Amino acid sequence: MDPLTIHAEDEKVFEAICAGATGYLLKPSSSTEIIEAVREVERGAAPINPYIARKMLGLFARLSPPRPAEGDYRLTPREKTILQLLVEGLTMEQIASRLTLSYHTIDNHLRNIYRKLHVHSRSRAVTKAIREELI
User: Fold this and answer.
1) Highest mean predicted confidence (pLDDT) among 29-33, 36-40, 87-91
2) Which of helix, strand or coil describes residue 87?
3) So what's the pLDDT on residue 71?
4) Taking Cα atoms as reference points, which of 6, 49, 51, 41 lies closest to residue 20?
5) Which pLDDT value is given to residue 119?
6) Is residue 113 domain-resident?
7) Under a CB-based contact definition with an 8 Å cutoff, are residues 19 and 39 in contact?
8) DSSP-derived 3-state class of residue 54
9) Does residue 49 sit in the same domain as residue 100?
10) Which own/partner contact pairs does 9-14 have at CB distance under 8 Å and 24+ positions apart?
11) pLDDT for 75-87, tens place per residue?
């Protein structure tokens, strides 16, 4: 595929990127812009025309998995209880003791909570719970 192209349609852009293009410029690019783009590629960058970059971001947005409606994370009652205890500042050991469950059971629930909330840490889960008033 010609790296300098007039094809700005989503499919052409997507095909070029999937085929391994290291950048994407449109033909109206000046010789100065082309030379600078080649230098950028040599430095490890990926020069992309701003119009094309916007189209790519739109493509990625449409390809991303659907997010649950705000606040609808399908947490179970037990997960909500554990999340509440996290917000209160209890450790996993304290939560396990309070709910008379094993540490490993709490750990499994926390993994499910993180997955459902799309977070990767306790602090992010607590922040999201407070910000979105999940508990």
Assistant:
1) 87-91
2) helix
3) 60
4) 41
5) 92
6) yes
7) no
8) helix
9) no
10) 10/55, 10/58, 10/59, 13/52, 13/55, 13/56, 13/59, 14/56, 14/59
11) 999 999 999 999 9
User: For residue 101, what are its two tokens?
Assistant: 């469950």
60: closest CA among 18, 26, 23, 2?
Answer: 18
Asked if residues 87 and 110 have their Cβ atoms less than 8 Å apart, the reply is no
Tokens of 133: 């008033």
Mean predicted confidence (pLDDT) in 90-106: 95
Q: What pLDDT, on a 0 to 100 scale, did the predictor assign at position 69?
A: 58
CATH at 82: 1.10.10.10
CA 47 to chain CA centroid, nearest Å: 22
Total structural domains within the chain: 2
Residues with Cβ < 8 Å from 73, sequence gap 6 or more? 116, 117, 134
More confident residue, 58 or 105: 105
Query: Which residues constitute the domain of residue 33?
Result: 4-63
In this predicted structure, what is the pLDDT of residue 44? 82
